Amino acid sequence: MLTLVLADSELELVPPSIAGHPAIRTSARKRGRSPTSILLDSSLHHPALKGVPEGERRGRPDLVHGFVLICLDSIVNQEGRLTTIVHTRHDDVLRFAPQTRIPRNYTRFVGLIEELFAKGRVPDDDPLITLERGVDLKAVLASYEGRSWAFAEGGAATDLRTAIPRLKGELTAVIGGFPHGTFRSPVADLCDRVVSLHANPLKAWTVAAEVLVAYRLFAKPPSPTKA
């Protein structure tokens, strides 16, 4: 079983501290929403982000959208061998059922996630996506057995074609959900290894795609259970 965790992702509602900024108010008014009920989006709210800590990396729901699409569309997911999780900078955790169909349209995706933040689950009956508050990355990783690898710049150079066949049991892959910089969570302490796939920085969805394909091709199938 493979678990993909998009960690420290820059997915959040507009913070109250900048809800009155003209860029935020204009965006909310166009949608008929209150400022603090919409997702923070750097493409729309860049001027407002200059006034918040780490504003240069925040407001990236597009990274989450691309990551989740690749995960849920993957062959590994269709085979029932994937768990998809998004962890945010504020320790919110989004869990996606394997059969979830994420909107391809970005605007529709944003609306879906805003509904999730408001309700905690979507749809209301038999939810496919759930939201948990106050769950740090350590608690997320503690829920899964097997090895855990964090993918980061500066990690040990790793060839998945040889590394994955050596696995014994499950793998949890932790991928950064931010545009640049480093993990806010202490992944070096929480994970068994910190690894790198390439000398150049890679997008979150690129790392996810590489891991998914390598796992499908090179992971050893589980040993049959004896009767």
Explain the overall architecture.
This protein is of the alpha/beta class and 227 residues long. The chain has a single domain, classed as SPOUT methyltransferase, trefoil knot domain (Alpha/beta knot, 3-Layer(aba) Sandwich), CATH 3.40.1280.10. It is 34% helix and 20% strand. It is built from 9 helices and 8 strands. Strands 4-5-3-2-1-7-6-8 form an 8-stranded mixed sheet. Strand 6 (147-157), helix 7 and strand 7 form a beta-alpha-beta unit. The model has no long low-confidence stretch (mean pLDDT 95).
Global mean pLDDT: 95
- What would you call the shape? globular
- CATH level 1 name: Alpha Beta
Strand content: 15-25%
Counted up, domains total 1
Summarize the biggest pleated sheet: 8 strands, mixed
Q: What fold name stands as the CATH topology?
A: Alpha/beta knot
Write a brief structural summary.
With 227 residues, the chain is α/β, with parallel strands linked by helices.
Keywords:
227 residues; alpha/beta; Alpha/beta knot; 8 strands; 20% strand; globular
Question: How are the SSEs placed, and which strands pair?
Answer:
Elements: E1 2-9, H1 22-31, H2 42-49, H3 61-73, H4 75-78, E2 82-88, E3 93-96, H5 106-119, E4 121-122, E5 129-132, H6 137-142, E6 147-157, H7 160-163, E7 171-176, H8 187-190, E8 193-196, H9 204-218
Parallel strand pairs: 1-2, 1-7, 6-7, 6-8
Antiparallel strand pairs: 2-3, 3-5, 4-5
Helix pairs in contact: 1-2, 3-9
